[in-house]
Amino acid sequence: MGFRFPDGFLWGGAVAANQCEGAYNEDGKGLSTQDVAPKGVKGPITESPTEDNLKLVGIDFYHRYKEDIQLFAEMGFKVFRTSIAWSRIFPHGDDLEPNEQGLKFYDDLFDECLKHGMEPLVTLSHYETPLHLSKRYNGWVNRKLIGFYERYARTVFDRYKSKVKYWLTFNEINSILEEPFLSGGIYTPKRELSKQDLYQAVHHELVASALAVKIGHEMMPDAKIGCMVLSMPTYPLTPNPDDVIAAMEFEHKNYFFADVQARGRYPGYMKRYFRENGISIQMGPDDEEILKHTVDFISFSYYVSTCGTADPELRKNSEGNLLGGVTNPYLQASEWGWQIDPQGLRYVLNMFYDRYQKPLFIVENGLGAKDELIKDADGVPTVEDDYRIQYLNDHLVQVGEALEDGIEIMGYTAWGCIDLVSASTAEMSKRYGFIYVDRNDDGTGTLNRYRKKSFHWYKEVISTNGQSLVHFERKQNR
């Protein structure tokens, strides 16, 4: 028998507009950085959308959201995390007036969620900076983006204040360090981007995030506004003190983002990093005061842990680890090289809670895998994804352990609750969902939806509030 999770625990799933909606040029939507990145983070940036970009159609959620929300409701979702496509509201990003058709779409989407008893959890900026802001202003390097983001935030807060209680400011805000175009809309190629410009862009995002919290609290007193970071706990590769310090310094680069958003000021270790690297952050006159507007909760993604070492021969990015680090010899990896570490989720929950004493929300966790569509005994198409069930079960058991540790956890939204286009690789074949979408890497397919085995498993987890989870004996990897 598994744990019983707290009453009111927000079970659900998560998607991002740019990976599922499609309709990239319908109803007044402008282009985003995603529309010109057909191969994900590893491929070239194109001048205009090309037919090989699967995200242009996604899974056609824009036209099929009612069908999909119905399936989520069948699983028993209490919350549905999605994002608003900034360029659907302000097509160029610096427009003076919003696009009413875009606003209407999210009205309808949130109404559909609420009709089924599902709270929307909405990310304001999820890897899709309006392309115009990227090309004309060099994305978040330019301070003007703070004002454009403020206008956008005010617009959607005012429009949806009666419908959305939970908001996130930026998705995986710390990923800008490794993927400045994807995460920060920075048009300068990564190899040419100076640390000065990179961390100036970071500062602008942090100010914008705090400004959104300030405005949100003024406009929506009952709303909860959180930050969202990519969590990747870093273990010392060996007990050598040099490796321990290397792991600490590696983790500082990630903690920095949550530190500022949860504590309202720059930490000393980051000021040292700036001094030692010749970085001088240009502050606006009110920036330090604005940063004091801290988030109500910390949300994060968790997929992998990594190791830190001082050994220069080993300090090469492990395949699949978005923020770097070295491979842990005690862990197995997914088909895409992401190391699987359920206990790392309990560890990071403890680390965040000890550090911030704020409620936590796991808003992304899941297994990307190549699923095979088969027919069950009744001839109904399905996927026998026991590997996904075990992955999610083992991670949720560790969430239960963290609850026993006394951690305050608001909820859990499994990533890619319906198959969508991968952010990192722009493939359909890297599937996360409980629901199979019939679309292939070459763009073919009917877009029909089919329940996987994990669909029924997750439905039971939710209906029993976690009691159906199975505790497997922990195996020691040798």
From TrEMBL:
It holds the Pfam family Glyco_hydro_1. One of its GO terms (biological process) is carbohydrate catabolic process. Keywords: Glycosidase, Hydrolase. One of its GO terms (molecular function) is beta-glucosidase activity. The active site is at residue 364. This is Amygdalase. InterPro entries: GH, GH_1_N_CS, Glyco_hydro_1, Glyco_hydro_1_AS. Belongs to the glycosyl hydrolase 1 family. The gene is ascB. GO terms for cellular component: cytosol. The keyword Amino-acid biosynthesis does not apply.
